């Protein structure tokens, strides 16, 4: 297929590359010169084949709203806009309605995979009308991992980002549990080999997982996590998950506590939050704060070549 990718950062750039490797033609636009194929949204739209497909991968909030609004002015009936960023699902519903009034399709895609997605594929959580999703399936098939998993058409517009929001809330809880377990083991006088303890859990246990593998990798690089500060930002999706739980009267103590722990990390240098910060760096390339006081990219997040 032929599509435009707007936003060629850590995620968008790798997604564009995976699509090109899969035989698709991608026209990329980035505000900053260097990576982009065109110099403006207008030029990007002109370069696309009909019906046009424009995938937006820019920061949520104002940048996404502005980009989608501008695309609504440039595109024509029958074209499709994809929002693949971390937008709030409520925003998707507004964008879908605004574009539908112009005959333009809208699909929201929650994307998970971080810096490993180029190599391993991206988990895609999709919301939108059946006809648009069906039209875009060749793109989704290339981006997702090989096999039966890694893709869901979750429902109407907004459903993709809703389930991605919950996915990230679950991620908060899992990382917090690993962090608290690490802190307790490290505090014990009985355990003298903390990294190998977690390494031993990679096989044969019920908590074996990709997050555990990444934690072992982080401990291999910094066994006492002494090079980073126990500070972890929240992306916003954890807050939205907790708010949605309140809106639907769904009890969510674990995810709520994990979100509040991130707030606490901004006040105290917590060993548990060192693990959360290290894991965010490992799977997503998120910057960590150095224990020495300066921001640092932290661990090498380049996926190993196989």
TrEMBL record:
Top-rank lineage group of the source organism: Bacteria
UniProt-listed GO biological process terms: D-gluconate metabolic process; organic acid catabolic process; pentose-phosphate shunt
InterPro entries: 3-OH-isobutyrate_DH-rel_CS, 6-PGluconate_DH-like_C_sf, 6DGDH_YqeC, 6PGD_dom2, 6PGDH_C, 6PGDH_NADP-bd, HIBADH-related, NAD(P)-bd_dom_sf
Keyword Oxidoreductase (UniProt): yes
Molecular function per GO: NADP binding; phosphogluconate dehydrogenase (decarboxylating) activity
Keywords recorded for this protein, A-Z: Gluconate utilization, Oxidoreductase
Entry-linked PANTHER family: 6-PHOSPHOGLUCONATE DEHYDROGENASE
UniProt name for this protein: Decarboxylating 6-phosphogluconate dehydrogenase
Taxonomic placement: Bacteria, Bacillati, Actinomycetota, Actinomycetes, Streptosporangiales
Gene behind this protein: gnd
């Amino acid at each position: 297929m032929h599509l435009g990718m707007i936003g060629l950062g850590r995620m968008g750039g790798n997604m564009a590359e995976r699509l090109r490797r899969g035989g698709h033609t991608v026209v990329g636009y980035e505000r900053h010169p260097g990576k982009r194929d065109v110099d403006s949204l207008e030029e990007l739209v002109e370069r696309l084949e009909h019906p046009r497909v424009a995938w937006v991968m820019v920061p949520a909030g104002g940048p996404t709203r502005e980009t989608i609004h501008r695309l609504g002015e440039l595109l024509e009936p029958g074209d499709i806009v994809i929002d693949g960023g971390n937008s709030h699902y409520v925003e998707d519903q507004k964008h879908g309605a605004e574009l539908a009034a112009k005959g333009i399709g809208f699909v929201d895609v929650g994307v998970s995979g971080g810096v490993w997605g180029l190599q391993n594929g991206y988990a895609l959580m999709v919301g939108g009308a059946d006809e648009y999703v069906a039209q875009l399936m060749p793109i989704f098939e290339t981006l997702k991992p090989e096999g039966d998993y890694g893709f869901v058409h979750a429902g109407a517009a907004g459903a993709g980002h809703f389930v991605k929001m919950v996915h990230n809330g679950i991620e908060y809880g899992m990382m917090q549990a690993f962090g608290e377990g690490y802190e307790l083991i490290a505090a014990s006088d009985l355990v003298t080999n903390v990294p190998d303890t977690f390494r031993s859990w990679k096989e044969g246990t019920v908590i074996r997982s990709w997050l555990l593998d990444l934690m072992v990798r982080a401990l291999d690089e910094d066994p006492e996590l002494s090079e980073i500060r126990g500070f972890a930002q929240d992306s916003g999706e954890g807050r939205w998950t907790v708010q949605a739980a309140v809106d639907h009267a769904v009890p969510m103590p674990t995810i709520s506590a994990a979100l509040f722990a991130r707030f606490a990390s901004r006040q105290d240098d917590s060993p548990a939050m060192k693990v959360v910060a290290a894991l965010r760096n490992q799977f997503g390339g998120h910057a960590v704060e150095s224990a020495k006081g300066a921001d640092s990219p932290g661990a090498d997040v380049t996926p190993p070549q196989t």
